[in-house]
Amino acid sequence: MPGRHRPEILHHGAVDGVTGSCHELQLGDGRSILIDCGLFQGAETSASGAGFERLQFTQPVDHIQALVVTHVHIDHVGRIPYLR
User: Which part of the chain is the Metallo-beta-lactamase domain (predicted)?
Assistant: First the structure.
């Protein structure tokens, strides 16, 4: 149907591992829904602090209309305070 957009999913975490779950459902009209926003843990970080930059949520968020939390584990909600 002309003028209709297909939703797409962007993965901002939990791509190369199992922690840091953060996925963006793009609705196709310039708006998005964020699904989880979790911390990276364990082997996906390092003792020297190399994982600190992974706390930052560097993607723009002004187009995000809602945040859906699937469950309250740190690897699904731990980066919520960094959303700006």
Answer: 19-83
